[in-house]
Amino acid sequence: MRPHTRWVAVASGWGVLLFAAGVTRAVAQESHIGSVTGHAPAGRPLYERYCAGCHGDDGDARGENAQWIDPRPRDFTMAVFKCRSTPTGTLPTDEDLFNAMTRGFVTTNMPPWVALTPQGRADMVAYIKTFSPK
């Protein structure tokens, strides 16, 4: 194999691996809320439409609106959640995230998302879980 051809083959291989790693993040995650199973790939477009403006495309609380919000939006990459039914320092349940999304937070700019279907909210919970390795 000529050096140029080998370099192209190696670069292509890395490109496929990096693409697959990014796709896996959104594909592998599910959420379970009662009898509803949420799927991250279905939650992604909903998150991008309703959440990314504040929470950021990468869930890092750096959305275009975040600079004007007080208190700041939650950074999902840190996997630290204030409202949960689990002990301090542990991850919330899927239902905790679902309820927070459904109810919103009165003293913040987080609106209630009751207009979205339960399936849509479960899908967004699954997608939000992809932002942190925890």
Summary tags:
2 strands, two-stranded antiparallel ribbon, 134 residues, single chain, globular, Cytochrome Bc1 Complex, Chain D, domain 2, mainly alpha
What is the helix/strand order?
HEEHHHH
Q: Segments where pLDDT lies below 50 for 5+ residues?
A: 7-12, 14-27
Percent helix, as a range, is 40-55%
Question: What is the SS-derived class?
Answer: mainly alpha
| Radius of gyration from the alpha-carbon trace, in angstroms | 18 Å
Any idea what the shape is?
globular
* End-to-end separation: 43 Å
Q: Tell me, what is the CATH class?
A: Mainly Alpha
Largest sheet: 2 strands, antiparallel
Let me know the number of strands: 2
In terms of DSSP E residues, the strand content is: 5-15%
Please state the average pLDDT score: 85
Architecture in CATH? Orthogonal Bundle
Number of domains: 1
The CATH topology label is Cytochrome Bc1 Complex, Chain D, domain 2
Count of DSSP H/I helices: 5
Q: Output the strand order for the largest sheet.
A: 1-2
Q: What does this entry show, briefly?
A:
This protein is mainly α and 134 residues long.
Question: Can you describe this structure?
Answer:
It is a single chain. 46% of the residues lie in helices and 6% in strands. The protein is built from 5 helices and 2 strands; from the N terminus they run αββαααα. α4 crosses α5. The radius of gyration is 18 Å and the shape is globular.
Topology:
Elements: H1 3-27, E1 30-33, E2 36-39, H2 40-50, H3 52-55, H4 94-103, H5 118-128
Antiparallel strand pairs: 1-2
Helix pairs in contact: 2-5, 4-5
